[in-house]
């Protein structure tokens, strides 16, 4: 499978078989993740790989409980029902043999240090921060991971939904170090047969504008 085929073949997988994932394959995907670009080559990511089924289920339980609490806060019945239905999209990783928790460290900006004493600092710094450079690097790393996994015959799902229980998850599994925070997760495993097709994309004309 070439890279373009992997890109087209990757789709979010939300149901997995119990087949184990080889450690060497996880490592291959992590190495691919770390080949991603990052702002000023800060490589501001860290990954925690969990294959312990009980621990994965405990994390899912934490997410379920938080989801339930948020659902109960909803005063609008339609919103309540809508959010309640999302539960399975936030906890699908409980059926995955591998859960990769992805952490990021804030992007260390030289500009912030240069402008620290200037009045205009906030305005410019806000513009730079709006690019969410740390998150963009993590997104690139996660995509590399998922493409490598696809190439090796695995399915993945990129997840940020469970982040609403981030503090509780971090209390359970620990933080990788003080400056890093959990940004997302990747569920990984062998997909069950007959998973849904990936949703159609917007036509290019809607999302692309050439300036000649
Ligand atoms: C940043 C990000 C967060 C996502 N979080 C979730 C999630 O929490 N749960 C989920 O089921 N899918 C999640 N997805 C997957 C999207 O729903 C999916 O990519 C989109 O519907 C397109 O489908 P495809 O991945 O099959 O092409 C996430 C995707 C991205 C990029």
Describe the protein's architecture and organization.
With about 210 residues, the chain is an alpha+beta fold. The protein has one domain: NADH Oxidase, CATH 3.40.109.10. Helices cover about 45% and strands about 15% of the residues. It has helices at about 5-10, 25-35, 55-75, 75-85, 85-90, 110-115, 120-130, 135-150, 165-175, 205; strands spanning about 45-50, 100-105, 155-160, 180-190. The chain has a 4-stranded antiparallel sheet with strand order 1-2-4-3. Helix 1 crosses helix 8, helix 2 runs antiparallel to helix 8 (about 135-150) and helix 3 runs antiparallel to helix 4 (about 75-85). It is globular. Bound molecules: flavin mononucleotide. Flavin mononucleotide binds near residues 11, 12 and 158. Flavin mononucleotide binds near residues 12, 14 and 92.
Query: What summary fits the major beta sheet?
Result: 4 strands, antiparallel
Computed CA radius of gyration, to the nearest angstrom: 19 Å
Helical residue percent? Answer: 40-55%
Could you give the count of β-strands? 4
> Beta-strand percentage?
5-15%
Mean pLDDT: 94
User: What's the CATH first level?
Assistant: Alpha Beta
Strand order of the largest sheet: 1-2-4-3
CATH homologous superfamily grouping: NADH Oxidase
The end-to-end distance, rounded to whole angstroms, is 34 Å
| Global geometry | globular
> Which molecules other than protein and nucleic acid are bound?
flavin mononucleotide
The CATH architecture category equals 3-Layer(aba) Sandwich
Q: Output the CATH topology.
A: NADH Oxidase
Number of domains: 1
The helix tally amounts to: 10
Low-pLDDT stretches are none
The chain-level structural class is alpha+beta
- N-to-C SSE string, H for helix and E for strand: HHEHHHEHHHEHEH
């Amino acid at each position: 499978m070439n890279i373009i085929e992997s890109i087209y073949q990757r789709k979010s997988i939300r149901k997995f078989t119990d087949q184990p994932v080889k450690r060497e394959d996880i490592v291959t995907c992590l190495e691919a993740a770390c080949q991603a670009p990052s702002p000023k080559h800060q490589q501001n990511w860290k990954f925690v790989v969990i294959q312990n089924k009980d621990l994965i289920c405990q994390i899912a339980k934490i997410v379920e409980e938080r989801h339930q609490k948020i659902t109960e806060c909803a005063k609008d019945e339609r919103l309540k029902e809508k959010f309640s239905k999302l539960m399975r999209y936030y906890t699908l990783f409980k059926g995955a043999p591998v859960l990769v928790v992805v952490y990021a460290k804030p992007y260390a900006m030289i500009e912030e240090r240069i402008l620290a004493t200037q009045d205009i600092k906030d305005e410019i710094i806000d513009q730079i921060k709006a690019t969410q450079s740390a998150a963009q690097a993590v997104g690139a790393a996660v995509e590399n991971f998922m493409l490598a996994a696809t190439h090796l015959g695995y399915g993945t799902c990129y997840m940020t939904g469970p982040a609403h229980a981030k503090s509780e998850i971090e209390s359970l599994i620990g933080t990788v170090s003080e400056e890093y925070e959990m940004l997302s997760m990747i569920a990984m495993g062998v997909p069950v047969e007959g998973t849904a097709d990936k949703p159609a994309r917007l036509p290019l004309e809607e999302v692309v504008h050439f300036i000649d």
